Amino acid sequence: MRSMVVSLYERMGGASRVQKLVDVFYDIVETEPEGEILHLLHLRGHGVAHSRIEQFNFLSGFLGGPKLYVEKYGHSDVREMHRHVEIGTAEKDAWLLCMSKAIDRVGIAPDIGATLMKHFRAVANALEIQHSTMTQMR
User: Fold this and answer.
1) Are 88 and 67 in contact (CB under 8 A)?
2) What is the pTM of this model?
3) Beta carbons of 98 and 28 less than 8 angstroms apart
């Protein structure tokens, strides 16, 4: 008998729960001191409203649900998505802190939250390294 693998998307509670996580995350970014550096980055780009939509689209697929970002843009390459953004240690750390707070506030189970943060840290570290490498090449 084959065991069914349940995605993080499903374990979190699907689209409504991912949307709640994104909303709480961006509420923190827009209103709390920990998110100020991120808010300023978003204001230089497409803005927070755009990011709320695209982060939901990306996270849906990233967590094992519908691949909405891929359907819209043809890829889900986070390095490409963030190529125009300077992500240093301060930005990376602020993003991880705001996301950790959002996970707690949404009430995601601790085991799922720890797994999410493990994946988010890996991506954030890769984006910071990309920025560092690109800065050194200039």
Assistant:
1) no
2) 0.89
3) yes
